[in-house]
TrEMBL record:
This is Cytochrome bc1 complex Rieske iron-sulfur subunit. Iron-sulfur subunit of the cytochrome bc1 complex, an essential component of the respiratory electron transport chain required for ATP synthesis. The bc1 complex catalyzes the oxidation of menaquinol and the reduction of cytochrome c in the respiratory chain. The bc1 complex operates through a Q-cycle mechanism that couples electron transfer to generation of the proton gradient that drives ATP synthesis. It is a multi-pass membrane protein. Signal peptide: none annotated. The lineage of its organism: Bacteria, Bacillati, Actinomycetota, Actinomycetes, Micrococcales. InterPro entries: QcrA_N (IPR045603), Rieske_2Fe-2S (IPR017941), Rieske_2Fe-2S_sf (IPR036922), Rieske_Fe-S_prot (IPR014349). Belongs to the Rieske iron-sulfur protein family. Keywords: 2Fe-2S, Cell membrane, Disulfide bond, Electron transport, Iron, Iron-sulfur, Membrane, Metal-binding, Oxidoreductase, Respiratory chain, Transmembrane, Transmembrane helix, Transport. It comes from Saxibacter everestensis.
Amino acid sequence: MTSNEQTPSGNSSLATTDGELERFENPGFPEHGHRLTDIDPIAAKRSERQIAGLFVVSMLGTLLFIVSYFVFTPEESMSSIRVSNLMLGLGMGISLFAIGVAAVLWAKNLMPDHEFVEERHDIHGSEEDQAVALEIINQGKEESGIARRPLIRNTLIAAMALMPLPAVLVFRDLGPLPGNKLHETLWDKGIRLAKDPGGIPESPGLIKASDVTIGSVFHVIPENLHDAEHALEEKAKSAVLLMRLDPSDLKEDEDRKSWSYNGIVAYSKICTHVGCPVALYEHQTHHLLCPCHQSTFDVTEHCKVIFGPAKRPLPQLPITVDSEGYLVAQSDFPEPVGASFWELNQK
């Protein structure tokens, strides 16, 4: 029985069963095999053009993103949103994929691939170390060939210069702040509650109180949503979750007992943390969960926050029934919907 050990000199040793050590020399690195681009200048030049071409493709992908951002503007239909997302994703995908493949081919075909051992040393900021660090940087510049290959260098610089532009356009959509726009939605006295089929319905399915059984959940929109000028924006503000509980499970404040109807309650679907859609309802615990950051709300107590980063309850929509038994809103939300970091105290 034998085992391998490493001697202080770097040579390996073989321990035998009788305790004697049989030493052998470190074989070192295997013989280096030259790549085609190392020995054939034509192949190296061809690889250089390929890499530069990929950087150009990356630039075209970035430009496709920018053009798509302005040309394929989402309108009032889900198909336009899908086309916009497809073109934006395609442009960004081409940009990132091309620049990544180009970097891999550059390192694989043109940068030196010799193996070497670098001894560790103490890290400190002496002048000698700074000189060594500068030498390493210069050596890297020389080995990468970025100084000797202006075609690759210039296309890389151009591709990297264009790369941040999509982020600028995306961040531009984060503003301006909504101001007072979140204080008013399409909900109003007498507006009937309708099922949300996922789009903007021409003939929404109205909801009767008898349709809502204990434990059921409805994604709800105002019946007049399809008449709104900016339907998607209004839907984003007016989206509601409708649930029915056993009335004995509700712990309602005295001034809000009239906001529900026989255990049926309605709350804004927009999380008060950063505005994600709350859509996960746990029937046994009566908890609503936001999938983005796990804020959890207790439906039995006016959707108060019981876990997560949200700082205030989901706004409740006061509801009742009309003469035909359909669920209707008593008024708009009594407070602004949406994330709490916006200016919510201006009306």
